[in-house]
Amino acid sequence: MSIKNQACIVGAYEHPTRKAPDKTVAQLHAECARGALEDAGLSLKDVDGYFCAGDAPGLGVLSMVDYMGLRPRHVDSTEMGGSSYIAHVSHAAQAIMAGKCNVALITLAGRPRSEASSGTQPRNFGPNVPESPFETPFGPVTINLYAVVAQRHMYEFGTTPEQLAWIKVAASHQAQHNPNAMLREVVTVEEVVNSPMIADPLHKLDCCVVSDGGGALIVARPEIARSLKRPIVNVLGAGEAPKGLNGGKLDLSYSGAVWAGQRAFAEAGIKPADIQYVSIYDSFTITVLMQIEDLGFCKKGEGGKFVADGNLISGVGKLPFNTDGGGLCNNHPANRGGITKVIEAVRQLRGEAHPAVQVKNCTLALAQGTGGRLGALHGSATLIMERI
Amino acid sequence: MTNQTAERSIANPEIWPDNKEFWAAMQTGKLLVKHCRACGESHWYPRPLCPFCMSADTDWRESAGTGTIYTFSVNRRVGPVPYVIAYVTLDEGVTMLTNIVDCDFDKIRIGDRVRMVPKPSENGTMVPMFTPAA
Ligand SMILES: [Zn+2]
């Protein structure tokens, strides 16, 4: 049993807004859903599966289904932070394969920019969080629980701030071509390492943007995909893995992507060298470095050398990544970037990325997410797609 | 030199039935670690059922309160005052989230030896932080 060739991504939509003070979160979900359905050439009544994560307003699937007027016969609200939406594509494929639905809608939306919520603030995960008594007194926020991974990586492998900076530089090279990107100016390594230090060793420019907005995807049965007038993006393989504190036997030298990636490549029956384009979750520069190593694009510890000198810039380097500018420069709606990772991979596979960053004859792409806190509890999700 | 320029307000730990012994011991300056009698492993953070074998046969053991910095980050622009978040590996083998305090933050390095120093949260509950071992 495998989801290989059992479902296709037929619709993808990234909301163009980056600041939406006059819209509600539910409205943004609905606008994204409408955009993805229009992209697919489908309508509301075709949707019989619905997916959102734990951040959706109200009672999650219940509120969103009612708000948008959906009549799903299958719902799923798997919550793995920003990686959720990549896992949702896999879960939608599984549901389609099992006959539980034919057309699955996945939505994400949020307004952290308008609501002044960022990675330097404590997150409230609600009552009864088991690890909370042994975390909250010490001031954990998003950025410092990524910074500790970067610090350890530098210690174990000699990775430098300049190497991490190259990831931002590469993202900025792609973002200059995206009219919707929040940061369109090309930056240099010097500008990144000279930007204010927030939490050692991560500078302001090692961080992603904070943006309002959202996105949506439509996953459908292959027969339906073939009936639509869009290039076909086939789901080849997927993997997911939560990773945590491991009872105090902590090892921050690798992320859950080690497990999720292996599972996805095994299912797809391909290897990292076959991938022509990658969307890699980029909450921070270190997030990208860890996932590139853990997915096997280079050896553990050699990520710093691998990402340097423009190796991630489309048309320049060997592994074009985040050609929309990614979370680092374009968009990180709801402080959750998973869905935009799949959306840009779909653009690449359809040949609809900006001509300046389009990978020639792109037929195999990978989207990778890390949600939660890389240096504590996090979810990892990998999705491999093929244009047929 | 970077140091804590003012007292950082320390959020209160939530005291629950499964951890009240831990916080009571902290009031007397003792750091406890949960140990499993069934599989012999210690674990962090403490819980009644061992995360390695699910046995309920777990008990509290007093830690020597010494350890090594596994990793850390000096938070320069996160809160109103700089502070250091860190993972410290206790000599008993478990790694715990904590803060490094009472030192020059710019001199902290991975691998440094540290010892536990209790610090009061907003309501006076003592929480385990660490400082360089002289
Ligand atoms: Zn045990």
Question: Key features?
Answer:
heterodimer, A: 388 residues, alpha/beta, nine-stranded mixed β-sheet, two-stranded antiparallel ribbon, 12 helices, 11 strands, 32% helix, 18% strand, globular, B: 134 residues, mainly beta, OB fold (Dihydrolipoamide Acetyltransferase, E2P), three-stranded antiparallel β-sheet, 8 strands, binds zinc ion
Strand content of chain B: 35-45%
Span between termini of chain B: 18 Å
User: What is the N-to-C order of secondary-structure elements of chain A (H for helix, E for strand)?
Assistant: EHEHEHEHHHEEEHEHEHHHHEE
Tell me roughly what share of residues is in helical segments of chain A: 25-40%
Please state how the strands of the largest beta sheet of chain A are arranged side by side.
3-2-4-7-1-8-11-10-9
- Briefly note the structural class of the backbone of chain B: mainly beta
| Largest sheet, spatial ordering of strands of chain B | 6-5-4-7-8
Give the DSSP E fraction of chain A (strand runs of 2 or more residues).
15-25%
> How many domains would you count in the coordinates of chain B?
1
Summarize the main sheet of chain A. 9 strands, mixed
- Helix content bin of chain B: under 10%
**DSSP helical segment count of chain B:** 1
- Ligand kinds: zinc ion
**How many DSSP E strands of chain A?**
11
Quote the average pLDDT of chain A. 97
Describe the structure.
Chain A is α/β, with parallel strands linked by helices. Chain A has helices at residues 25-40, 61-68, 84-97, 144-157, 161-175, 189-193, 222-227, 257-268, 285-294, 303-307, 326-330, 338-350, and strands at residues 8-14, 49-51, 74-76, 103-110, 197-199, 202-203, 213-220, 233-243, 277-280, 364-372, 378-387. In chain A, strands 3-2-4-7-1-8-11-10-9 form a 9-stranded mixed β-sheet, with helices on both faces. Chain A has a two-stranded antiparallel ribbon with strand order 5-6. In chain A, helix 8 (257-268) crosses helix 9. The longest helix of chain A is centred in the first third of the chain and has 16 residues, at 25-40. Chain B has one helix spanning 20-27; strands at 32-36, 42-43, 58-62, 66-75, 83-90, 95-100, 113-120, 126-132. Chain B has one domain: OB fold (Dihydrolipoamide Acetyltransferase, E2P) (Beta Barrel). Chain B is globular. The model of chain B has no long low-confidence stretch (mean pLDDT 96). By secondary structure, chain B is mostly beta strands. Helices cover 6% and strands 38% of the residues of chain B. The two termini of chain B are 18 Å apart. The relative contact order of chain B is 0.23. Chain B has a 5-stranded antiparallel β-sheet. The chains are: A alpha/beta (388), B mainly beta (134). The A-B interface holds A 120, 122, 130-141, 143-145, 147-149, 151-152, 155, 196-202, 245-250, 252, 375-376 and B 8, 10-16, 19, 41-47, 50-52, 70-79, 83, 85-87, 89, 93-99, 110-111, 121, 127, 129. The complex binds zinc ion. Residues 36, 38-39, 41, 50, 52-53, 55 of chain B line the site of zinc ion (ZN).
